[in-house]
Amino acid sequence: MLFNSIEYLIFIFIFFITYWFVVNRNLKFQNLLILLSSYIFYGWWDYRFLSLIFLSTIVDYFIGINIPKSSSAFKRKILLFSSLFFNLSLLGFFKYYNFFIDSWIDLFNLLGYEIKSIWTLNIILPVGISFYTFQTLSYTIDIYKNKLKPTKDFILFASFVSFFPQLVAGPIERATNLLPQILKKRQFKFQQAVQGLRLIVWGMFKKVVIADTLAPHVDDIFNNYQDFDGGILFIGAIYFAFQIYCDFSGYSDIAIGTAKLLGIELMSNFKFPYFSRNIAEFWRRWHISLSTWFRDYLYIPLGGSKDGRWKSLRNIYIIFIVSGFWHGANWTFIAWGLIHASFYLPSFLLKTNRKYVSSIIAEKTLIPSAKESFEVIITFFLVTIAWVFFRSPSLIDSFQYIEIIFTNFQIPRLYRSGLFYIIFLVLFEYLIRHNERLSDKYFSGDWIVFSLLIIAVLEKFGDYNQFIYFQF
Asked: How far is CA 271 from the centre of its chain?
């Protein structure tokens, strides 16, 4: 079920009324409603995929219960390994089986041995499998590390795994944050609901109005890049940078806003990443739930930055390559990860990767300094060039696309509809850059602004364009 659909509006209206006015006095019934509604939400695409998420839930529920009961460290490790193996095997089969088979065949063909692709399968990628797999893995890993006690309430745990607002495209929640909120009785808070509605409207605007307006221009340019000069291709790359940001962050805003309507707070997933002043800051502000997941469950266990410079560099490249591979079964995503690792490298070597941890551009003044503006422009340029690899169908297309940009650049004509929305987005987000949740502390919720946003959304609503990150 898509957020930007009439079906979802009907679904969330019925759910909201039932949640707060029918089962609000019984926590178990509320959680059961969350679970059943989440399965309806997820099964709307293909009910067959419900078996996968249900199977993952059962496996990690019983493994989570038995880890603390194990009398030896070896048994605990076996149980953790079982969870990792089961979940990653499912993810690997559905997402990467054909990729490895095709890559193996291509390698033999390159060496002169002709092999036909007889082992590939017609596999449909389950929506959101990368997201809920990482979410349920965090549960068993945290129990193994004694950071979390397992729950014996199956409905509670199943609701955590399948929580519909963030089920198919994040944020990837931690059990330490979401489980306690589902465990305790929730009360309706008017201000929290108002903040949620603001986020939903703003997320819808970013997705339905901006991202979906830019999408046809991006598709036209990337699908026919040989027919354009470098200036147009550069505009296409910029438009894709804003398309994917508005598409993905728009989903996160709607998810966080919807959870607020239910009295639940999800983690922030984006904090104005295009105002970043270096690549390290960009990754602290982009897809935060994934980058922190890799930091806590892969980078730090590998040794982080504590085992010398060379091992630290190794760990950085591993993290970025795995992050790229997580996004999709294509060498372009691995290249995208490698490129970001290489862009991150100077900041790490010069020890400026922790320079902008809590601050944001022009934090105390309205106008950024010349130095800040230059850093933001350079960072955005590097990120945009890397997006070419993310968007292109193959590595050859990526390199040819970039080659045309640098060898045949001409002053481009502009796609005005897309340009207007980009300018509006940048100005609006700059004004609210301290406040990604549009809270009352910083934002008065001007009814005129949001009325105009609602009108713009309604004008575009109903196209039912899928969110980009559903394919990951």
From this structure: 13
SS (H, E, C) 396-433: HHHHHHHHHHHHCCCCCCCCHHHHHHHHHHHHHHHHCC
Determine contact, residues 94/125, Cβ cutoff 8 Å. yes
Residue with tokens 């054909």: 98
Count of C-beta atoms within a 10 Å radius of residue 445 = 14
Let me know: does 43 contact 54? Beta carbons within 8 Å. no
8 Å CB contact between 247 and 200 = no
Nearest alpha-carbon partner for 405 in 166, 242, 233? 233
Asked if residues 217 and 422 have their Cβ atoms less than 8 Å apart, the reply is no
pTM beyond cutoff 0.85: yes
Nearest-angstrom CA–CA distance, 78 and 444: 53
Helix (H), strand (E) counts: the chain: 18, 0
Alpha-carbon span 317 to 10, nearest angstrom: 45
Q: How far apart are the first and last CA of the chain?
A: 16
The three-state secondary structure class of 262 is coil
Rounded to 5 degrees, what are φ and ψ at 229? -85, 175
Q: In this structure, what token pair is assigned to residue 340?
A: 């970001």
Active-site residue, selected from the candidate residues 287, 327, 340, 434: 327
For 148, other C-beta atoms within 10 Å of its C-beta total 20
Tokens 């082992």 — which residue?
119
Exposure on the CB side of residue 181, measured as CA atoms within 13 A: 19
Q: pLDDT for 265-309, tens place per residue?
A: 999 999 999 999 999 999 999 999 999 999 999 999 988 878 778
User: Distance (Å, rounded) from C-alpha 286 to C-alpha 275?
Assistant: 11
Nearest to 94 by CA among 56, 38, 59, 60: 56
Q: How far apart are CA 332 and CA 343, in angstroms?
A: 16
* 287 in active site: no
- pLDDT digits over 384-407, tens only? 999 999 999 999 999 999 999 999
Domain ranges (residues) in the chain:
6-185, 191-277+356-471
> What whole-number distance in Å separates Cα of residue 364 and Cα of residue 352?
21
Can you tell me the distance from the alpha carbon of 444 to that of 438, in angstroms, rounded to the nearest whole number? Answer: 8
Ramachandran region, residue 445 (left: φ > 0; alpha: ψ -120 to 50; beta: rest): left
Concatenate the DSSP letters of all residues of 260-328 into one string.
Answer: HHTT--PPP--S-GGG-SSHHHHHHHSSHHHHHHHIIIIITTTTTTSS-HHHHHHHHHHHHHHHHHHH-
Residue type, 439: S
pLDDT digits (tens, 9 = 90+) for 198-232: 999 999 999 999 999 999 999 999 999 999 999 99
Dump the DSSP string for 159-195. Answer: HHHH-GGGTTT-----HHHHHHHHHS-----HHHHHH
How far is residue 358's CA from residue 219's CA, in Å, rounded to a whole number? 36
